[in-house]
Amino acid sequence: MKALQKILASTIGIIFMLSGFVKIIDPMGTAIKFEEYFHVFAEDVSTTLPFLESFFLYLIGWKLFLSVMFSSFEFILGVALLVNYRAKLMHRLTLLLLIFFGFLTFYSAFFDKVTDCGCFGDAIKFTPWGSFTKDLVLLVMLLVSMKLLPGKKRVSAYGTYGGGMSLQKENSSIFKKISIWVAVLFAFGMCYYAIQHLPPIDFRPYKIGNNISEMMTSQEPCVSVYYMEKDGEEKMFENYPTDTSWKLVRMETINEAECQPLIPDYYISNEQGEDFTEITTKGTKLLVIIQNVSEIEPETMEPINDLIRGVSSDDVSALAITSDATDFDAFKRKVRLSIPHYYADATVLKAVVRSNPGILLVKDGTILGKWHHNDTPKSEVISQLLNQE
């Protein structure tokens, strides 16, 4: 039984570590998911509990802080379960977290509100009901593990049964404490790095080396079947029947997930909404991604302006892509940004680069480089990347 308990606790711990890891390397992604949930909750309670609507909207301003704390706690808790540190306390905390997870995933699945819970970030996608099932399985495993935890040691007038703590137990306790502190430093350190730079591992379609144009096309041809009816009989056909007496009831795509493009919503337009997507995927482009102009100070743009001037002599066209509906021309004058600008959906730009502003080097649709504004490259770096092609 003791072995089974350790296996269950270790399995849950490893899953929590993996889930926490993909979040701490991209806390901005988890913050975006928090914002999505807060908006959904605020909308759902707006008519019945307006004070809660204000509360959820208020929490949006704390989304990044909550993301860092939540993601780090999940990773640290996974380490604690794996090394069996303060087992009873950690099991209870895990129980609370799984109940919280279960509520979110059930809410998403039952009310069809948030189609992706973000449980494993962008690394692994779950359907809402699949995610809820996962949480139920983990909950059952945890309850069994809690049931199998050893009880308190019995103490007599002669001391605790089994004698005092041995040197081996002392070493084990030290190892567990060191493991927890390493996990704490690693989790918060990784969050800080990802926020100040970019996620060290990119699970999104817009990662370096991917071709945007290819990601916008279907992964494989869609395969459909046809449900037809004649004389009260319904029959499925792999090919549309030539017999006109059969009437179409419905058509279903049997490989819908595989035939969908990895990037279904990448669309670049001008102020009039005209399609200019191709301008970013043809030739060599330096794309300056600006999500929200109110969050950008003029000094932040100075290295980017230097980069634009440095590559202007090369065969590189610099463009600004923004999702901000405010007067972008006024912002350009304020920060002295003298390049054409176009528009895209805010969600798309957040997926393209986790930085505001951020920089992409794209050649014929292939992403050659991606930078946080804190790491704005020199023009020599751009030249080197282009010469490697």
TrEMBL record:
InterPro entries: Methylamine_util_MauE (IPR009908). The chain crosses the membrane at residues 7-25, 55-81, 93-111, 131-149, 178-195. Keywords: Membrane, Transmembrane, Transmembrane helix. It is a multi-pass membrane protein. It is found in: Membrane. It comes from the Bacteria. GO terms for biological process: methylamine metabolic process. Pfam families: MauE (PF07291). GO terms for cellular component: membrane. Residues 1-145 form the Methylamine utilisation protein MauE domain. This is DoxX family protein.
